[in-house]
């Protein structure tokens, strides 16, 4: 089995044919809170992003992988990212999106995260991974803590919304020695 493959999903590199999916996900305002996005992305900018995705994580400081189901002709259900890669300190942030509600709660994110953790620690030799999750996002908190991440800090009133302020947790997973 491929290192980026699990029982039900496979992680793969971005392809030019992903432009419409990424465009719809990045411009879906319901995703903006978790991605700290404030403005829409143009197809032009996203095409440039995809055309530069051949750069490795050491050059780009980021790696985005698409989450494909191994059934249903490799239907793409989401994306998982390593971002803010720091090669000196051997750390990177993690972000994940399962795009459609009817694709959530089926184990896709859990398997994708486990595959990414294995790849980051054993192939990229990353020492630690981290993520930031709003305090009200119980599903994401459970996803990451079930994969070994620990809540190590809280940023109070960190995210401003139309309904007020939301705190954010900082989670870490440090590679076992």
Task: Furnish the topology, listing elements before pairings.
Elements: E1 9-13, H1 19-26, H2 32-35, H3 43-51, H4 57-60, E2 63-69, E3 76-86, E4 91-98, H5 108-122, E5 128-134, H6 138-146, E6 150-161, E7 164-174
Parallel strand pairs: 4-5
Antiparallel strand pairs: 1-2, 2-3, 3-4, 5-7, 6-7
Question: What is this structure, in a nutshell?
Answer:
With 177 residues, the chain is α+β, with helices and mostly antiparallel strands. It has helices at residues 19-26, 32-35, 43-51, 57-60, 108-122, 138-146; strands at residues 9-13, 63-69, 76-86, 91-98, 128-134, 150-161, 164-174.
Can you put this structure into words, describing what you see?
The protein is α+β, with helices and mostly antiparallel strands and 177 residues long. It has a domain at 9-131: 3-Layer(aba) Sandwich (Aminopeptidase). The protein has six helices and seven strands. The chain has a seven-stranded mixed beta sheet. A hairpin with a 2-residue loop joins strand 6 and strand 7 (164-174). Helix 1 (19-26) crosses helix 3. The protein is globular and about 40 Å long. The relative contact order is 0.15. The model has no long low-confidence stretch (mean pLDDT 89).
Keywords:
28% helix, Aminopeptidase, 177 residues, globular, 7 strands, alpha+beta, seven-stranded mixed beta sheet
